[in-house]
Recover the amino acids of this structure.
């Protein structure tokens, strides 16, 4: 298997953490896509992922899987423990729900702010920006942090008692927020404590 | 189980189709949330789904599942055939990838256009609009239709040989596009043929 990515970017980080949780990192060849120089918009890469986003998981039969949730589904069903996407119908549903909330309400909101209301990746790559929408998404990201903080007041992880795909998404979202200079609201002590705890996992610490 | 929804809206349609595909419709009590009069923003509904969106699946133990992908995961793992989210790791990954593309590139893009660049649900409910972003998302929806058309030139369904969650999302997205008066580009003959075929499924036809 190959993972096309740019190491350090928030979405590739999600896949690296999932692989490490499953003990599968050594089975993957990482291929750097030179995003800062626009390689993700080359015909060769667009053939792998028409949206031009990293990461992409390429299976040995040539099938290309984009979108982190989809890649995580593959990784989680390809091998043993821990289970990142749930076993029972209910566990799967709660994890996917919380994953989506962490994605839409934090990671993607931060990304939209970064790409639209800041210089983002620079004028060559940010060919369309809508600053008003970007600023609105910053507010959404802050609301997302407060929501996640409330969830973590009642349980250790976003989907309940166990670390899951939802935690990976939110953790990557906070990393992106740091990069985009969106601070976690001071009162979000549960979110900060959770983040410190997740940062100590071997899959994250490396 | 209860499903809180507004019949005829695009996201509730996704859950209704999934339930019908699995033969589970009769096991669900549908509860109308009066979205046109703002009931989805009442404290009682926000306690079920903090984002205020319909549909929400409430399990018999009181657990509330929001987000259509999560609800579909529940439905698909609660009972037998057909399988809507895939069996093997690869099938699951491809279906989730195509579902996400249909969602972000079509259904959600149409929704953002509708809520931001048209009167949407009216001035009482559309309390923040960003018309520029809405218009941009209309272009994204049209590009999404062209992309899906290309996929369907090579295979009968969005994730391959079998109908899946990805088809449900795209079908609901086209229904929303009709409502928002975004026409399928004339040249998208594969997409139109696929739509006619899906519309004939008993789960859709009713």
């Amino acid at each position: 298997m190959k993972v096309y990515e740019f190491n350090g970017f928030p979405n590739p980080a999600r896949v690296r953490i999932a692989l490490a949780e499953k003990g599968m990192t050594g089975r993957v060849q990482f291929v750097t896509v030179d995003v800062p120089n626009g390689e993700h918009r080359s015909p060769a890469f667009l053939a792998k992922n028409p949206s031009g986003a990293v990461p992409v998981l390429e299976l040995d039969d040539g099938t290309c899987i984009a979108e982190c949730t989809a890649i995580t589904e593959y990784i989680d069903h390809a091998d043993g423990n821990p289970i990142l996407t749930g076993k029972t119908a209910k566990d799967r549903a709660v994890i996917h729900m919380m994953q989506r909330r962490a994605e839409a309400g934090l990671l993607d909101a931060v990304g939209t702010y970064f790409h639209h209301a800041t210089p983002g990746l620079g004028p060559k790559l940010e060919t369309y920006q809508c600053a008003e929408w970007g600023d609105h998404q910053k507010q959404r990201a802050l609301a997302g942090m407060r929501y996640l903080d409330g969830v973590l007041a009642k349980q250790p992880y976003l989907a309940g008692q166990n670390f899951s795909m939802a935690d990976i998404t939110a953790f990557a979202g906070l990393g992106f927020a740091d990069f985009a200079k969106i601070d976690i609201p001071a009162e979000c002590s549960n979110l900060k404590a959770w983040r410190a705890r997740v940062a100590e996992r071997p899959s994250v610490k490396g």
